Every structure is written in structure tokens, then in C-alpha cells.
From TrEMBL:
Pathway: Isoprenoid biosynthesis; isopentenyl diphosphate biosynthesis via mevalonate pathway; isopentenyl diphosphate from (R)-mevalonate: step 3/3. The keyword Lipid metabolism applies. Belongs to the diphosphomevalonate decarboxylase family. This is Diphosphomevalonate decarboxylase. It comes from Anthostomella pinea. One of its GO terms (biological process) is sterol biosynthetic process. It comes from the Eukaryota. Its EC number is 4.1.1.33. Residues 198-350 form the Mvd1 C-terminal domain. Keywords: ATP-binding, Lipid biosynthesis, Lipid metabolism, Lyase, Nucleotide-binding, Steroid biosynthesis, Steroid metabolism, Sterol biosynthesis, Sterol metabolism. It is an enzyme of class 4 (lyase). GO terms for molecular function: ATP binding; diphosphomevalonate decarboxylase activity. It catalyses: (R)-5-diphosphomevalonate + ATP = isopentenyl diphosphate + ADP + phosphate + CO2.
């Protein structure tokens, strides 16, 4: 008897770094955000997740996931929600066409690999869930649009919905209770602003102390400043950021990025008890950006920090000399930097 066929699909998904930050959920089960956010997708040459999904009627047991070579728990509610939705879409195709193989009934084996530290504030869950959802969607030949897959990836990890697109991506928080309007869309492709670059400074590759999921719920529950951020600060930043991207206005892009990062970390500090993601090396990166901009006499660099100490510095290619040069000088010459910070090569946007 012929061996049972193994069905297979592989995909990669990129990391995205928000310039207007997602922080806070209005529905923790569906991962519905309290505010919209906007991110820039980094090149997969530097940071990406590669996921292969297979299924076969010869497989026995439950679905499984291998992450960076080690077995990983797949029974969590978020992963289960993604797989359930993808299976039910496949099931609908099979119900409509009896000739299709019954992939939805077969156990899934997922093998996933990051080329960067997991859970170190480098958006590994974003690339991870985006790759998982797209690999299974491809395996099941769903032909769904990225914005529809973003609804599924969002349930894995909020920021994952943005990693299904390249370039400049908005996640609209939406207002519906079912979350069907809480989805990502591309604001502009990378080719719209090809000079944009991101320098990722890995200050620490250790796992972060407070997970985003629990940190943001503590902020929602205890920070008064957070209400102001959601009601007034983020809507203003979203409008200004979309206008800055449309006009390729780097000074405005940079100002909004830095202010939004500061606002997010201020809300973390206003959480009770306070959450501190940035450390002394992060603060030295802020001062370095200020010094670079002062020396240039205009804004040529912008910092942003997620739920960890690592810095992402945005700049335009034409200014890579003063920006990257300054940071490499710091990395080489300063105690603390030399030991703690390891830079990824600067990344283009894809
Ligand atoms: C962002 N972060 O917009 C913000 C900025 C961290 C700071 O999205 O609970 O891992 O899985 O929905 O997506 C990190 O939060 O949280 C995040 P869950 P997620 O990129």
C-alpha cells in the first residue's frame, strides 16, 4: 500500500515594530485593543519566523508545535482559537466540494523557528502567530485575504495581525463586540518610502520580566494616565502618523514615534505597581538620539521601545552615517554598551 500523503506548506512572517503602540484590551479573550496602532514591518532578512505546517492521515495523536527545536505547548486558548477558526474555514471548503481531501480531520504538525531571541521584546509573538496562521491557511488552500487572516492572527497575539502585511500597517481597534472590525490593513507599501531604515539594538536578549499580556491588563486596571492616552493621545498620534507617512515627512514621523513611545512607557510607570521596561542602556539610547538630532540641526533619528529594554532607531538611508556611526561608536567605546548591547545590522523595511 502506498504511504499516506503528507500535505505541506511553509511560510515566513516578519517582525513589526509599532510607532503608535497597542497597549490595553477591551476584550481579553478575542484580543480586541482599546486603541488603534500603527507599525512598520522590518525586512525578513534580519528578523523573521519560518513555519512549516504539515498534516497527514498517517499522523497519530493531537496537533503539535515544535518551536526552535523544542516541543511547545499548543493547548493554550489563543493557539486553539487560531487553529479552530482555520479548521472551520477548511471544513466549509470540504463541505462545498466532496473531491477535496479531508485535511481538516487530520492532526497538524507545526515546526517554527525564529532567527532572533524569543520573548525579548522583539515582537516574536507577532511574527510567530502571523507565520502560524498563514502556514496553516496555505496548507488548507484557504485563499483568504491578509486582512481576513489578520482577524485570526489577532486572536493569537494582538500585534500579530499587523505582521501579515509589509510596509506601514494600521490595526484599527474597532468597536464591535464580535471583533470583526478589529483588523489590520496596509497604510502604505514599503516602496512608498524606500529610504526608511530601522536599527535594532538588542540591549538584552533575556525574557522580559512582565509579559505584555499581563502588563497591559495591569495598566488598564490601575493607570489614570492610560484613560487620557486612549481618549486623546493615540487618536492624535494615529492621525499625525498617517499624515507623516503619506507625506514622507520624517521629522513628523520621528516626533510622533518618540512621543508615543514616551506616552506608552509613562503609562507603564503610572501602573500600580509600576512596570519598567526600559533600563539605563535604553535611556542612554534616548540621549544618543537627542545628541544625533542636535548635532544634525534637525530630526534625523527616532527611538521607540516596546515591552522590553531593546531600542529600535528609525532613520533614513541618507543619514546612516551619523545615525549608525554614532551607535556603533557607542557600542564600541562605552562601558555597559560594550558588554550589554548587541546590534543587529540595520534593517530595511519590507
Ligand atoms: C505593539 N506591544 O503595538 C505593543 C507595544 C508591546 C508594546 O503589541 O496579549 O504580544 O499577545 O495581544 O501583541 C505586545 O503585545 O500582546 C505589543 P497580546 P502582544 O507592538
Amino acid at each position: 500500500m502506498a504511504a499516506e500523503k503528507i500535505y505541506r506548506a511553509s511560510t515566513t512572517a516578519p517582525v513589526n515594530i509599532a510607532v503608535v503602540k497597542y497597549w490595553g484590551k477591551r476584550d481579553a479573550k478575542l484580543n480586541l485593543a482599546t486603541n488603534s496602532s500603527l507599525s512598520v514591518t522590518l525586512s525578513q532578512d534580519d528578523l523573521r519566523t519560518l513555519t512549516t505546517a504539515t498534516c497527514s492521515s498517517s499522523y497519530t495523536g493531537d496537533d503539535s508545535l515544535t518551536l526552535n527545536g523544542a516541543p511547545s505547548d499548543i493547548t493554550g486558548a489563543r493557539t486553539q482559537a487560531c487553529l479552530r477558526e482555520l479548521r472551520s474555514l477548511r471544513q466549509a471548503l470540504e463541505d462545498a466540494d466532496a473531491a477535496l481531501p479531508k485535511l481538516s480531520a487530520m492532526p497538524l504538525r507545526l515546526v517554527s523557528e525564529n532567527n532572533f531571541p524569543t520573548a525579548a521584546g522583539l515582537a516574536s509573538s507577532a511574527a510567530g502567530f502571523a507565520a502560524l496562521v498563514r502556514a496553516v491557511a496555505d496548507l488548507y488552500e484557504l485563499r483568504s485575504l491578509p486582512t481576513d487572516l489578520s482577524l485570526i492572527a489577532r486572536q493569537g497575539s494582538g500585534s500579530a495581525c499587523r505582521s501579515l502585511f509589509g510596509g506601514y500597517v494600521a490595526w484599527r481597534h474597532g468597536t464591535q463586540a464580535d471583533g470583526l472590525d478589529s483588523r489590520a490593513e496596509q497604510v502604505a507599501p514599503a516602496s512608498h518610502w524606500p529610504q526608511m531604515r530601522a536599527l535594532v539594538l538588542v540591549v538584552s536578549a533575556a525574557k522580559k520580566g512582565v509579559s505584555s499580556t499581563s502588563g497591559m491588563q495591569q495598566t488598564v486596571g490601575t493607570s489614570d494616565l492610560f484613560g487620557e492616552r486612549v481618549a486623546r493621545v493615540v487618536p492624535k498620534h494615529m492621525d499625525a502618523m498617517e499624515a507623516a507617512v503619506a507625506a514622507r515627512d520624517f521629522a513628523s514621523f520621528a516626533e510622533v514615534s518618540m512621543k508615543d513611545s514616551n506616552s506608552f512607557h509613562a503609562c507603564c510607570a503610572d501602573t500600580y505597581p509600576p512596570i519598567y521596561y526600559m533600563n539605563d542602556v535604553s535611556r542612554a539610547a534616548v540621549r544618543a538620539v537627542e545628541a544625533i538630532n542636535e548635532a544634525a540641526g534637525k530630526t534625523i533619528a527616532a527611538y521607540t521601545f516596546d515591552a522590553g529594554p531593546n531600542a529600535v532607531i528609525y532613520y533614513l538611508e541618507e543619514n546612516s552615517g551619523p545615525v549608525v556611526g554614532t551607535f556603533y561608536g557607542l557600542l564600541r567605546g562605552t562601558e555597559g554598551w560594550k558588554d550589554e548591547a548587541k546590534s543587529y545590522s540595520s534593517s530595511s523595511i519590507q
